Amino acid sequence: MESYRLLADSGATKAEWALIGNDGVLEHFYTSGINVTYSSEEEIIQIVSIVVSRLSSITPDQLDELIFYGAGCANEYKTIHLKTILFNHFPNTTIRIYSDLVGACHALCGTNPGWVAILGTGSASCLYDGQQMTLSTPSPGYLLGDEGSGTSLGKKLLKSYLMNQMPTELKQDFEYKHQLSPALVLEKLYRQPNPNRFMSSFAPYMMEQIENPFILKICTQNFQEFLQLNLDYSPDYKKYKLNILGAIAYHFRTLITQVAAQNSIEMGLIEAAPMPRLIKQYLNDN
Question: Which residues of the chain fall below pLDDT 50?
Answer without folding.
Answer: none
